[in-house]
Amino acid sequence: MLSLTLGIIISAIGGLLLTRYIASQKHTSHIVCPNGGNCSESTNGRFSKFLGIPLENLGTFYYLLIAMTYLVVLIREVPSWVVIVGLLLTGIGFAFSMYLTIVQVFGVKKWCTLCLGSMAISLLIFALAFLGFKGEFVEFAYTYRDLLKWLYMAGVIIGSLFTTLHASVFVNFLNDFDITRKEERRLKMFSHSAWVALGLSFLTGLGILLTDYNFEYSQANQTIVMIVVVGMLIVYEVIVNMIVGPKLIDMHFGDHPELDDHDHMMQRKISFAFVAVGVVSWYSLLLLSVFNWFSYSSGQILIGYVALLIIGVLITSLVEVVMYRKSLHIIEEDYQEEKQD
Fold first, then answer.
1. What tens digit of pLDDT does each residue of 229-262 get?
2. pLDDT of residue 82
């Protein structure tokens, strides 16, 4: 236990030094990114902030908090809740590292070696904390299972709400292809909030499953479908908010001139389809979490979810066609008015 705690503290100090180096060098032209990486794109680009806060500042706060928490655990006897808080923080750091890895692969599409180093440190801290304090966490989770259930439901409700708001703003942008920087920041905030809700639901759901000694949830018919839904939500976030959305927004602001009309049309159709996937998936997760589905098999529930996805995609595809024709009609009217003038 002592060696694991020391390992956590040393790792946290290393992560703290790394994030401060990134912060001090991010605005310089000579930031060193080992092994041929591209760090400037990750530290200064569109994915360099989360909820408006620079990633290196979030990293600094996280590593400092971890180091202080486990230093207290090392030098004195502390209440069990302090250990639990420390372990929960490492879990949050691990989940956030997974998010940043997804950003590296699908958003930035360039590897930042320094960022990968920070992710590796977060993973190491989580592994050491879990190995050292797993028993305390399981005991806490079992004692406060009702709290975990409430937090899980809060995550699902918040995710459904912010994804609905995101879909409303995004579809409005796709309707008239007009967006302001303020609306772009709002889209990012909605997306980041949905990621937070997804992480909260995942971590609390994991805690519930780890303490499911009576197999109340782990063997429930809807559990496997809920895991599939969470996977689809990750796919939705990646495609809409890391791949397609940025291209369309950049095209509006003139940052992607290589996109022609055909590319634009394809991006629009994909966007509308996956907006439906996101909204349907969040509300499906909400329904699966609230109601009992014992009378249906996992296969039947999965077929029902897929059917809802297909219906949602068909509806949004039809809406996209109607909106596009309406836009063409407006453009034609404006052209005729200009011609007459």
1. 999 999 999 998 888 888 777 776 655 444 446 6
2. 78
Contact 152, 210 (CB under 8 A): no
pLDDT digits 0-9 by tens, 164-193: 999 988 888 777 666 777 878 888 899 999
Residues 6+ away with beta carbon under 8 Å from 126:
90, 91, 93, 94
Which 3 state secondary structure label does DSSP give 53?
Answer: strand
Angle between helices 181-210 and 80-102 (to 10 degrees): 130
User: Measured between alpha carbons, how far is 36 from 43 in angstroms, rounded to an integer?
Assistant: 15
Q: Are 18 and 117 in contact (CB under 8 A)?
A: yes
Tokens of 68: 């202080």
Beta bridge partners of residue 50, listed in sequence order: 53
pTM: 0.83
Per-residue CA distances from 296 to 280, 283, 291 (Å) = 20, 18, 12
The token pair at 323 is 């909106």
Query: 10 Å Cβ neighbour count for 151?
Result: 18
Strand locations in 221-277 (E):
none
The answer to whether the beta carbons of residues 107 and 100 sit under 8 Å apart is: no
Distance CA 161, CA 201 (A): 14
What structural domains and CATH numbers belong to the chain? Answer: 1-142 (1.20.1440.130), 144-341 (no CATH)
Phi-psi region of 77 (alpha: psi -120 to 50; beta: other; left: phi over 0): beta
- According to DSSP, residue 218 is labeled T
**Mean pLDDT calculated for residue range 21-49:** 71
